[in-house]
Specification:
heterodimer; A: 112 residues; globular; B: 117 residues; mainly beta; 4-stranded antiparallel β-sheet; 0% helix; 50% strand
Chain lengths: 112, 117
């Protein structure tokens, strides 16, 4: 059974700090990885995707991928209270059909 | 308006009733998906579709039926609703045509909150 694991949290960080969110996956054939942010009562929205080993930066967000270790992470620099949300890790299921499998999400709380 | 929409946004129904949740997208995306989201479980795939008239089961398909006669629509039907189907349902779509890794990006609708009493 293909799985995606995330710490459920809550991960509590002070405003201005770096928040580090982690995700591990079991399918070695997975090639594409996605981070979604979900505010309470809202639908998931894509923050970043990554498919090459290493780091990918977009503003305050950095995604990191290590396929050998089957590990993907999301760093949020200069965390703001508006970053408080649940972050979902989505992993492509190898074999086609554009299917993703999601972790249960990590709840992030940024306190002033 | 462009995008992906779901209707109704909220629904209360009784056990045993048939319920249909609607999903409509305007991007002509090939792939469409239905998820349910429950506390502690994240998003679980119910059914997906690669194109019109092509559908297949996901992780939790029991008690659900889908159809896709047109590319833009992907309705989900609960044939005989049960209390365990109380959940938030999200529809999503993705492009797939370009074939690049970003074609896997899924866009989500606003969700339908379903309560079965």
């Amino acid at each position: 059974q293909k799985e995606v694991e995330q710490n459920s949290g809550p991960l509590s960080v002070p405003e201005g700090a770096i928040a580090s969110l982690n995700c591990t996956y079991s399918d070695r054939g997975s090639q594409s990885f996605f981070w979604y942010r979900q505010y309470s009562g809202k639908s998931p929205e894509l923050i970043m995707f990554i498919y090459s080993n290493g780091d990918k930066e977009d503003g305050r967000f950095t995604a990191q991928l290590n396929k050998a270790s089957q590990y993907v992470s999301l760093l949020i620099r200069d965390s703001q209270p508006s970053d408080s949300a649940t972050y979902l890790c989505g992993v492509e299921i190898s074999g086609g059909y554009n299917k993703l499998i999601f972790g249960a999400g990590t709840r992030l709380a940024v306190h002033p | 308006d462009a995008g992906i929409t779901q209707s109704p946004r909220y629904k209360i129904t009784e056990t045993g009733r048939q319920v249909t949740l609607m999903c409509h997208q305007t991007w002509s995306h090939s792939y469409m998906f239905w998820y349910r989201q429950d506390l502690g479980h994240g998003l679980r795939l119910i059914y997906y579709s690669a194109a019109a008239d092509i559908t297949d089961k996901g992780e939790v398909p029991d008690g659900y039926v889908v159809s896709r006669s047109k590319t833009e629509n992907f309705p989900l039907t609960l044939e005989s609703a049960t209390r365990s189907q109380t959940s938030v349902y999200f529809c999503a779509s993705s492009g797939g045509l370009a074939g690049g890794p970003d074609s896997y990006e899924q866009y989500f609708g606003p969700g339908t909150r379903l309560t079965v009493t």
